[in-house]
User: What shape does this take?
Amino acid sequence: MAQSKTDTNSQPGLTQPPLGRDERGSIDVDSLPDVIQWFLDYDQRVAVIRNPRVEEVFQWKQEQSRRTGEDVFLFNRAEDRIAIGILQALSEHATEAELHTWMCQLLNALDKATKATEDVAAAYRLDLAAQVSVVTESQKIPAANARTNFLMNCWLESLCTAEVRVLGWLYQEFYGRPFRPDNF
Assistant: This one.
């Protein structure tokens, strides 16, 4: 059976992400886009952002933002959104304690979104494992507000999973210990 390019667990010879360091051993922030790209290419939990079904939900979300006049930057693709989100999180949360707090917030959002998605999928008998579009499947939800919340939670699940995965690896590289919610 062929191994997926994004299955890091089954590729023991796969190298670490290319995090650059300067002559003093400090992290070269200019290498962060290469790290993000590495995760998009080789880590299946991050690469899910490229899945056409996830992209469709992301594009739906972008259209919702446009329609409602939200003051948000509109990205062309979901993977652009995740990359900017990671870089922005690192710049806005520059200390270990700040990044730790942010990652705990991401995990909480992920947990809430996952539970909400599971509850709605069960209540309306949505088949999320089928190859059908998630946006199309969500049409089984009769109330527009519930459908919108469901699709937003689907997007948040993918976004938070990918973002916390990359940030978790970077956290360990920056601070010399793995991220754990109870580190502080």
The chain is about 60% helix and 0% strand. The two ends are 43 Å apart (CA to CA).
